[in-house]
Amino acid sequence: MKKEPIIAFDQVSKSYPLYHHVRGIKHLMFNFKRNMKEMNANQYEALRNISFEIYEGEQFGIIGHNGAGKSTTLQLIAGVLQPTSGRVTVRTRVSPLLALGSGFHPDLTGRENVIFNGVLMGLTRREVMNRLDEIIEFSELGEFVDRSIRSYSTGMLARLGFSVVAHLDPKVLLIDEVLGVGDIRFRQKCIDKMMEFKRNGVTMVLVTHSTQSVMQLCDRAMWIHNHNVKMIGKSRRVVERYCEASGVPLPKRARDKKDEMLDFVEIEAPTI
Amino acid sequence: MLGISQGISRLSDRRSIESYRDLLILLVQKDLKIRYKKNVLGYLWSIASPLTFALVYYFAFQIVLQIRAEGYALILISGLFPWQWFANSLGSSPSYFLATSQMLRKVRFPLSIVPLAANLNNMIHFLLSLPVVLFMMLIYDKTPSWSWIYGIPILVTLQLIMLHGVSLILASLNVFLRDIERVAQIITQFTFFFTPIIYTVDMLPPEYLRWLPLNPAAPLMVNWRSLILDGTMDWGYVLFSVGYALLFLALGTWVFNKLSSRFAEVA
Fold first, then answer.
1. Looking at residue A109, what DSSP letter applies?
2. CA within 20 to 30 Å of B3's CA: A3, A231, B11, B177, which one?
3. Rounded distance, CA A7 to CA A90, Å?
4. Buried-state track B105-124, b at ≥16 Cβ within 10 A, e below 16
5. What digits encode the pLDDT tens for the residues B168-222?
6. φ, ψ of residue B163 in degrees (nearest 5)
7. ipTM more than 0.90?
8. Residue A100: pLDDT above 50?
């Protein structure tokens, strides 16, 4: 029985004009013709003709060098970018795990930010309120939850961010390397939550530089090289080839399941 | 498992009207909270600015230049308070989308809600400043008119729609052309002196008076003053304002629709 893909890219290309050629209205007015020509000629191609499918309940990793097009792929899935050509099909609502601080307002308290974030993701205020206690308890922020998040540490922000997304019943979770912070106890909680997601069939798309985490968490992986799909397949095989091509030794296999997950969360510093 | 699948169905691709409404309320609340939480004097600050300007212009035009106008203090106040709303909106519009660039690059949400919330906010600040206008009138032995009951909602609505349209244009363009901010400042200054704010319509030479409706801000500001001071409105000017409101809303929506799908590429 072949399942229908929940996310499908069909020959998707994405290029941006390099807007810095325009600079400003003054510049645009005085060099209008040349500017428009330059802008159209100097397109930056972030993705070239890529196709892949992600199925429901799958954990899908995306790896590749810096600037290969990984984050652009994620933004296309999230629907904040439109493809230049090709077709992006997303059959359900996706929940992006927000990078630290984005979507948070420093002058509001943790509690207020939780509500704001939940509603921003598409819930109603009532739905967020129903889960508020659960979210706050999970975040372990204690009395800090009623202070403005200006006073939060990086780890606390990450905890708040993860707690919100973890309690929104995500169907497709988009993760762009944000889990590497938080103390050891909270990390363990995140791991448990991720395993729960995995068991419950939550689809996850994980963009990361950590080959270890891709091997351990993901069923399948895609390697993007130079804005193009180099390889799609079982995550272990993709990682092997990727490491080979990069001249980096393959990360050693961890034995215990829990240990594996710990490694996964430990490895990367967050991209802010 | 069942519980989760129920949760999913609620997170369907299309945002419910309730969620949209909640987001709008939260955005408006957020700005209000920040404004009044940061300093206890938040409210005072929002009225200090038009009052200070009134004082400065009073000194310059009444005391130094000895302008011939009866009750010049009230003339200034009835012009400067609505103008303050107008100018604040123009000034802050360009940054609306840039300020949310972190969010709009990650989450898909109806982007036009951002300027809408900001404009509602500016409207609320204006409404909150009206008691000061009333207070000043009572000091100068003027009484408010019953026509305020319908006059204020009409003018507020027209000004809100018009400013929303303008802010959609400025905020969208400024994502790509960062110096729109400067342009907006210049336009604001320009409009200020070509609009009867520190002078009245009657002081305008007749050959200039007929060009007045060409200034989108003028019909509104003229009506604000006559409504506040005399309880009357020029319905011809109201029609002009309706026209400008719809024109700018249409233009703003068009520009926004053309550009908004590319915001995440630049912002």
1. B
2. A3
3. 5
4. bbbbbebbbbbbbbbbbbbb
5. 999 999 998 888 889 999 999 999 999 999 888 888 888 888 888 899 999 999 9
6. -65, -35
7. no
8. yes
Distance from CA of B232 to the nearest CA of A (A): 42
Q: Which residues of A31-66 are buried (b: 16+ CB within 10 A; e: fewer)?
A: eeeebeeebeeeeeebbbebebbbbbbbbbbbbbee
User: Which chain B residues are within 8 Å of A46, Cβ to Cβ?
Assistant: none
CA dist B202 → B68, B205, B212, B215, B226 (Å): 11, 8, 12, 16, 12
Q: Which residue has the tokens 């909150």?
A: B128
Angle A24-A28-A30 from CA coordinates, rounded to 5°: 125
The mean pLDDT of B245-257, rounded to a whole number, is: 96
Unique residue bearing structure tokens 């899935």: A77
Q: How far apart are the first and last CA of chain B?
A: 39
Q: Is A121 on the interface with B (CB under 8 A)?
A: yes
Q: How far apart are the first and last CA of chain A?
A: 41
Tell me the residues of chain B between 201 and 260 that have a Cβ less than 8 Å away from chain A: none
CB neighbourhood size of A230 (10 A): 16
| Angle made by CA atoms A112, A118, A123, in degrees to the nearest 5 | 130
Q: Could you tell me if B23 lies within 8 Å of chain A, comparing CB atoms?
A: yes
Bridge partner residues of A232 (DSSP): A222
Looking up tokens 């979770």 gives A173
Quote the CA–CA distance of A178 and A184 in Å, as a whole number. Answer: 15
Q: Does A125 touch chain B (CB under 8 A)?
A: yes
User: Any CB–CB contact under 8 A between A37 and chain B?
Assistant: no
- Domains belonging to chain A, first-starting first, are 5-92+171-267 (3.40.50.300), 98-169 (no CATH)
Q: pTM, whole model, 2 decimals? A: 0.84
Judging contacts by C-beta atoms under 8 Å, the chain A residues touching residue B7 are 168-169
Cβ neighbours of B178 in A, within 8 Å: 23-24
Name the burial class of residue A3, with classes exposed (0-12), middle (13-18) and buried (19+) by CB atoms within 10 angstroms of its CB.
Answer: exposed
Q: Is B215 helix (H, G, I), strand (E, B) or coil?
A: coil
Find the CB nearest B177 among A22, A122, A126.
A22
Task: Say if the Cβ atoms of B109 and A16 lie within 8 Å.
Answer: no
Taking the C-alpha atoms of residue A42 and residue A23, their distance in angstroms, rounded to an integer, is: 14
Distance in angstroms (rounded) separating the CA atoms of residues A86 and A14: 9
Residue of chain B whose Cα is closest to the Cα of A112: B30
Nearest to B218 by CA among B82, B64, B20: B82
Question: pLDDT digit string (tens) for A105-156?
Answer: 888 888 998 898 888 888 889 989 999 999 999 888 888 889 888 888 877 8
Give the single-character DSSP code of A268: P
Q: Are A72 and A81 in contact (CB under 8 A)?
A: yes
What residue spans of A140-183 are helical by DSSP H?
154-166
